[in-house]
Amino acid sequence: MAAIEIKKDIYWVGAVDWNIRDFHGYSTEKGTSYNAYLIKDEKIALFDTVKKEVKGDLIHHLYQVLGDPSKIDYIIVNHVEMDHSGSLPEMIDLIKPEKIFCSPMGKKALIEHFHREDWPFEVVATGDSISLGKKTVQFLETKMLHWPDSMFSYIPEDKLLISSDAFGHHWATSERFDDEVDPHELMTHAAKYYANILMIFSPIVQKLLAQVKEMGLQIEMIAPDHGVIWRTSPQTILEAYDRWSRGETKNKAVIIYDTMWHSTEKMAKAVMNSLLQAGITNVKMLHVRKNHRSDIITEVLDAKAVILGSPTLNNNIMPAMADIITYMKGLRPKDKIGAAFGSFGWSGEAVKHLTGHMTDMGFDIVGEGVKIKNVPSHEALKGCSELGSAVAAAMKK
Ligand code: FEO
Prior knowledge:
The protein is of the alpha/beta class.
């Protein structure tokens, strides 16, 4: 990869991480990128750095653009998480910046991470701006998108929003712009990123979108810290964030289940068939040990109904179901219809537990759940068909 000029005198200087497959529990089956940006003006500013392991790529790109990275005057830390700050100590040693701009929470977090109170911090808050010469950088704190320290940097002369984690996606590509990649695949990665990283913060996303509108920011380009740059269709991702953060759903049901000896799986199929017969054509069957939790939660993002199935194991649910439920609870999906089913051998508590978890998440529970002892007969599966019909009816309301 080479540094790429994304606007006049503004460069992508980040790193593409082709081989990462696990990003603290998120399956990055197509890698990711850590995007850092450089503005060449009377003052030269670097926006964020990259993960420590790939700092050589960042340094290489800085040499390409500047000849000498120590020409950089300012480092702007939009986000402290280690995928953007991991190489900061080495970069500060190399650059010896005059100032390091960060939010108030950013300064706190940087000191807690790197224990260097002597760095030349310059704290900025929403509404503050700095001049680099011809170009201005306006700051907008975006607490909890993704961490308390996060902020956006907006360059009004270029109508460019450097958006940190927001509007990003984990996808390693040789292309750097939205119009160079497959749009469907791009939105699939963007939805997965939103579901796994930002769904919990949906109310904050709504407030931020309203604030951006109120401030009248004209956005021609969005440059996030991961994935490709929204050069042609920034409106597409802004509108998607509005839909996802409002919890807008499709007429889609997701059946998430585990099974020991295929009895609960037979029940899952009966529920699915009944949904299909009732006209719900978008149904996903997700065996929880065959699908990664980060892919399952992506399907949950825009599903109207979430139906959970588990056999009873040791008076409880299967461990892999506990995993996805814990993950889902943390991410707080909104306004879902829920239902439960499961087979059992003797005690049969799983359905009660599944229903309890969905109640905790505020799901609108349909029916009392279906339990079947040992292997379901055709007759017994009618209960699952009825559950599927009841869910379909609730979805059509
Ligand atoms: Fe890409 Fe919250 O770090």
